[in-house]
Amino acid sequence: MAKGVCKSTMKKRGKKYVAATKKIDSNMVQDFREALSSALETSHVAFDETVDVAVRLGVDPRHADQMVRGSVMLPNGTGKEVRVLVFAKGEKENEAKEAGGDFVGNDDLLEKIKGGWLGFDKAVATPDMMSAVGRMGKILGPRGLMPNAKTGTVTFDVARAVKDLKAGKIDFRVERAGIVHAPVGKVSFGVEKLLENLASFLETIIRLKPASSKGTYLKSISVSTTMGPGIKIDPAYVKTILK
């Protein structure tokens, strides 16, 4: 049994997960290439699993000046088809449709969402729509679907916003525990493409370091597949993939 995994937890997991976990030592800290290789080796399901990264930061999100939030364009995309909804009027509706927006409209979409429909992955809104969209905050906010100027999803340049989201732009935000989670691709990408995506993500995280953050900023990093165990990476190796 891999170290650090209790028996009670193992009993609740499927046989394939247990077998995958036995392949790694959960206490071992690896470099990025080794960790990704290990993660791909533990993939044990029929579908193309997402590869996620979790970074624990030396920040206290309870303080506004230590909030880490932003977006990054992954060079190889996410491997997922993103359904983009755009709240816009007039000419901007046409621009959004031409750019590939899956659902484009204004009051009609707001009524549909109010009725319980949430068949999209990302939302974009022009600034003049935000007073109405803001009233959907209790529905969209908890699901991470509320457009936000800080992530470029509240903009009059709706065509660019739609294209970026479909090409692999992801949003992230530090959680209360100081951890940032993000998808960096699919198992089918292979190690090299995943490394490129990870480098872009971590470069952005480092650039967003709050001035008020003291001490160690990147405290821990781990990668995992959708159904696989977390594999630890030594933060000291970050500099090697940012070259």
Present the secondary structure layout.
Layout: H1 7-12, H2 15-22, E1 29-30, H3 32-41, E2 50-57, E3 69-73, E4 84-87, H4 91-98, E5 103-105, H5 107-114, E6 122-125, H6 130-133, H7 137-140, H8 158-167, E7 169-173, E8 179-186, H9 190-207, E9 218-225, E10 231-233, H10 238-241
Helix pairs in contact: 3-9
Verbal overview:
This protein is α/β, with parallel strands linked by helices and 243 residues long. It contains ten helices and ten strands. It has a five-stranded mixed β-sheet with strand order 1-10-9-2-8, covered by helices on one side. Strands 5-4-6 form a three-stranded parallel β-sheet, with helices on both faces. Helix 3 (32-41) crosses helix 9.
The best one-word shape is globular
Which whole number gives the mean pLDDT? 90
What is the topology, as strand order, of the major beta sheet? 1-10-9-2-8
Would you identify the regions where 5 or more consecutive residues have pLDDT less than 50? 1-11
Alpha-carbon Rg, integer: 20 Å
Structural class: alpha/beta
- Please report the total strand number as a whole number: 10
Helix content: 25-40%
Strand content: 15-25%
Q: Order of helices and strands, N to C?
A: HHEHEEEHEHEHHHEEHEEH
Q: How do you describe this structure in short?
A:
This protein has helices spanning 7-12, 15-22, 32-41, 91-98, 107-114, 130-133, 137-140, 158-167, 190-207, 238-241; strands spanning 29-30, 50-57, 69-73, 84-87, 103-105, 122-125, 169-173, 179-186, 218-225, 231-233. The protein is an alpha/beta fold. The two termini are 37 Å apart.
